[in-house]
Design brief:
The structure holds two protein chains of two kinds. By secondary structure, chain A is an alpha/beta fold. Chain A has six helices and eleven strands. A nine-stranded mixed beta sheet of chain A has the order 9-8-7-10-6-1-4-5-11, sandwiched between helices. In chain A, strands 2-3 form a two-stranded antiparallel sheet. In chain A, helix 2 (68-77) runs antiparallel to helix 5 (203-221) and helix 3 (96-110) crosses helix 4. The N and C termini of chain A lie far apart (62 Å). By secondary structure, chain B is of the alpha+beta class. In chain B, 36% of the residues lie in helices and 25% in strands. In chain B, the strands form six sheets. In chain B, strands 1, 2, 8, 9, 10, 11, 17 and 18 form an eight-stranded mixed beta sheet that branches. Chain B has an eight-stranded mixed beta sheet with strand order 16-12-15-14-13-5-6-21. In chain B, strands 3-7-4 form a three-stranded antiparallel beta sheet, with no helix packed on it. In chain B, helix 2 (27-38) runs parallel beside helix 6 (122-138), helix 2 runs parallel beside helix 13 (338-357) and helix 13 crosses helix 14 (364-374). The two termini of chain B are 45 Å apart. The chains are: A alpha/beta, B alpha+beta.
Chain lengths: 291, 575
């Protein structure tokens, strides 16, 4: 079984890592790039299937050469047998459509018929959630590639490699959240939900998981040996249809998110000022009874 | 047969199977697994902690006995360099009465049958062992898994055929080694052990105290590759039967107290206060010198092998080793548990392999029992001498007579005349095997020795102490709330149910639980008064959040007691 997981590098939005300038704009240069957190969940789903059924897990991304480290992070912290980076100036500044075309081409060069392609739910920076589904459309538009069904919002996954089918639980959010179980043929395209939870109910699976985790952590030390980089020529892509030139999206402007007006009044009290502190105690005393 | 049973039976064919399942990755489980793996037995080890050792506490000294068929360094060759703290070559007991102390050198009893003895901290030790065990067992097709709690035995037509777990599906096995500790759920499921009688148990409480290696060498006058052990008995503990210990580690000290649970309960003593009593005792000041930084507070139940070491620790495919089988030898200053667990683990493995070779793996239990007897393990754990003398020596009238005699001027004269003899008596494994479990042995005799033979405890002159000493009047251990705060982890669903909340049935837990106390609202067990129909009722309430899984309340209160699920609950960093 061959599974390909798609990933993207995003600014590390965690407290203490992310840097903003005075106007509230993200400072890319000062903010480290990390693997999109939702993609790690997708990779965990791929690892779960590898543990259960064996096979190969490839991790693929499109981005600048620095994304090598994003791929390495996925290999080290979750799992990957091999890494693929689609990297070229011509691919830069792509919207989700141009990205999907590039990725579809990269995918078909890597393996025209992987059993499973898995993407994460939305990137932490773009927040569109388009690239996964659009990549499936691109597959459908290309008659040379097999059709594959798209299953999104997946919270649990179970592949049956012998029957060539996949059974998934989907979290369908409506007025009430529902879990829907779907079954489809392989090959398929899966988008994991952030709630996806890998499960290992057999000791043999947990032991295999431990082995694979050990292997991949070691492999990540020399990830370059497992990395393949392709530019637009390798993929035989026309620069007019990829990158900025191939992107129909026009960004007309960026509006900063207005700061929410404060609804509470605050008075600054110096802890060294006895009178002020006494006033605080007087105010609080009324609530001391638990009212 | 219910539907669930029917479904269960239908699934049996699909259950995973391993030749051997070892439950618990302490020294007993590690020894069993290593010995099995070396004989090519496919072995799966299941440990419920996030890491092996994270649930485990011991005093702790580990011995390698000359007479033992298995030792930890025999099974794990680099053990001493990689996993232990310091070789302990000096051993003393301090008999205390008020401000007087008489110290005996226990060199002879310490070195009797001892190849070597090291101090250990269990997190470091057990996690190292677990790595080796995983490597060894993985080659057999098994391996070691953490964060899996085995919650019971899998039975088929009434026969034990495997184990059931919280996290993974049931597993079948030809051999099940229960090395799941003093509160073994498997031993209880099989009806081999219970928690009925406080008289069968000790409770140990320990503080691991930070100390720079050079300071340890200096204050204990030991080499960098040497160490010391000190025991304390006498009147330091408000008359509660038990004693204290101090062992030097690489860069810390293990200081603790061990008491008979029945005595602790009867006296309504607070274990953490008794420990503090030792920590702040002037006798310890010579080593602590006003400096005290506690790394960890911990506690555990300790089986008294004289009473509960199971003579037939097996049922069907299930074999018990270590604390799970009550294999903890505590006879006066002889305190040995881990070494017996290692031997038992080795013998259990050996028994299974032999039984299988003979074509009947089901005979493993009987063979194991015979080996425990023939290798002399059972005689160490349950000496015949103790069994013979117990009936007389633990009799009240005899005790009163003994106390009266030793307290008399005649007794004092005898002690003085026979000072050397008293020290020799403390060094005699033969006599120690007969020591009765009475106040007389634990309190009266040591106190009287100190009164008659002792010297005043030397007070440290404060000029000697370093400038940054915390407190010139001695050390100030953290209070219980701080100790609990450092040990609080997600316990998941409550794992202990209080069956009878009346104070009469379960009130003893309020004091005996090492993380609860009278008039303290932050512990597991709280003493409460509630008004019902105009009447005031005294009840006990339980919050399992601070639980350190020692099992004390399972014995002294009316509870339904289980361990938390895998990876949940207390996580000892030192152990």
């Amino acid at each position: 079984m061959h599974t390909v997981v798609l990933t993207k590098g995003v600014p590390d939005f965690r407290e203490g890592k992310v840097a903003f300038d005075e106007d509230g704009h993200l400072e890319r240069g000062k903010t480290p790039t990390v693997m999109n957190p939702n993609d790690k969940i997708a990779l965990r789903a791929a690892l779960q299937e590898k543990v259960r059924h064996g096979g190969t897990v490839s991790l693929l991304s499109m981005g600048p050469p620095g994304y090598e480290e994003v791929l390495q992070e996925g290999m080290r912290e979750v799992y990957a047998d091999d890494l693929y980076l689609l990297s070229d100036r011509e691919m830069a500044a792509a919207d989700t459509w141009a990205t999907s075309i590039t990725i579809t081409t990269g995918l078909s060069k890597l393996d025209p018929e992987p059993d499973l392609v898995v993407a994460g739910f939305k990137t932490a920076d773009g927040e569109t959630g388009h690239t996964g589904p659009q990549t499936t459309w691109c597959h459908h538009m290309n008659d040379a590639l097999p059709d594959r069904s798209l299953v999104t919002h997946v919270v649990a996954l179970d592949v049956d490699p012998e029957a060539d089918t996949l059974r998934a639980k989907r979290l369908v959010e409506g007025d009430v959240a529902e879990i829907e179980t779907v079954e489809t043929d392989l090959p398929a395209f899966v988008v994991t939900d952030p709630e996806f939870d890998p499960s290992y109910h057999k000791a043999a699976h947990r032991l295999r998981y431990k082995d694979l985790r050990e292997e991949t952590t070691e492999r990540a030390e020399s990830y370059e040996e497992h990395l393949t980089t392709w530019n637009h020529e390798d993929l035989n892509l026309d620069p007019d249809f990829i990158g900025l030139d191939g992107s129909p999206t026009i960004v007309s402007g960026v509006d900063p998110i207005p700061q929410a007006p404060s609804e509470r009044e605050a008075t600054v009290v110096s802890p060294d000022d006895a009178d002020e502190m006494e006033a605080v105690v007087d105010e609080l005393a009324a609530f001391a009874g638990g009212d | 047969m219910t539907d669930a049973d029917a479904a269960g039976a239908a699934e049996t064919a699909d259950h995973e199977h391993y030749e051997a399942v070892v439950v618990g990755a302490g020294p007993g489980g590690a020894a069993a697994a290593a010995a099995l793996a070396r004989q090519d037995v496919e072995t799966l080890v299941l440990e419920r902690g996030v890491d092996a050792g994270s649930k485990n506490v011991s005093g702790g000294l580990i011995y390698a006995e000359e007479s033992a068929p298995y030792t930890i360094d025999g099974l794990f060759p680099d053990f001493r360099e990689a996993a232990s703290e310091r070789p302990v070559d000096e051993y003393y007991i301090h008999n205390v009465a008020g401000d007087r102390v008489k110290t005996f050198d226990l060199d002879r009893v310490h070195h009797h049958d001892t190849d070597w003895c090291d101090s250990v901290l269990r997190r470091r030790m057990d996690s190292w062992l677990a790595e080796r065990v995983h490597e060894l067992t993985r080659e057999t097709g098994g391996g070691l898994l953490t964060e899996v709690r085995v919650n019971g035995l899998l039975r088929e037509n009434g026969e034990i055929v495997g184990v059931t777990c919280d996290e993974i599906d049931p597993i079948r096995a030809d051999l099940i080694v229960a090395a799941d500790g003093v509160n073994s759920e498997l031993a209880r499921d099989a009806g081999l052990m219970d928690w009925d009688d406080p008289d069968d148990w000790f409770q140990g409480v320990k503080a691991v105290v930070d100390m720079d290696p050079d300071v340890v060498n200096d204050r204990f006058d030991v080499d960098p590759d040497g160490g010391a052990a000190h025991l304390f008995s006498g009147d330091l503990f408000e008359g509660v039967r038990g004693g204290g210990f101090l062992y030097t580690n690489e860069d810390s000290l293990s200081i603790g107290t061990v008491f008979h649970l029945d005595s602790l309960t009867a006296e309504r003593a607070e274990p953490h206060e008794l420990l503090d009593g030792l920590l702040t005792h002037p006798l310890l000041d010579r080593w602590l010198q006003g400096e005290y930084e506690e790394r960890e507070y911990s506690a555990k139940l300790v089986p008294d092998s004289k009473k509960v070491a199971h003579p037939s620790p097996h049922r069907g495919r299930l074999l018990l080793v270590g604390d799970a089988a009550g294999q903890m030898q505590a006879q006066g200053p002889i305190i040995k548990g881990m070494n017996h667990a290692v031997t038992a683990g080795g013998l259990a493995a050996e028994a299974f392999v032999e039984a299988r070779t003979r074509g009947d793996a089901s005979k493993a239990g009987e063979l194991y029992e015979r080996k425990l007897r023939e290798e002399g393990v059972m005689e160490k754990l349950r000496p015949r001498r103790y069994r013979a003398s117990r009936a007389v020596s633990e009799n009240d009238a005899v005790n009163r007579l003994g106390s009266a005699l030793i307290d008399s001027p005649l007794g004092a004269a005898g002690l003085r005349a026979a000072e050397g003899l008293a020290e020799r008596a403390f060094n005699s494994p033969l006599l120690l095997g007969m020591v009765p479990d009475t106040r007389f042995s634990y309190v009266t005799v040591p106190s009287r020795i100190a009164e008659v033979l002792g010297e005043p405890i030397e007070e440290r002159s404060y000029a000697d102490s370093s400038d940054d000493a915390d407190d010139e009047d001695g050390v100030r251990p953290p209070d219980l709330a701080d100790r609990i705060g450092d040990l609080t982890y997600d316990v998941g669903d409550p794992h202990i149910e209080l069956l009878d909340e009346s104070y009469e049935a379960s009130g003893a837990a309020v004091t005996a639980c090492p993380v609860s106390a009278e008039a303290f609202g932050g512990g597991c067990y709280r003493d409460e008064r509630i008004q019902t129909n105009g009447e005031e009722k005294r009840v006990v309430s339980l919050d399992t959040q601070p639980c350190i899984e020692c099992g004390t309340c399972a014995v002294v209160a009316d509870t339904e007691w289980e361990h938390p699920s895998g990876g949940k609950g207390v996580e000892f960093k030192e152990g």
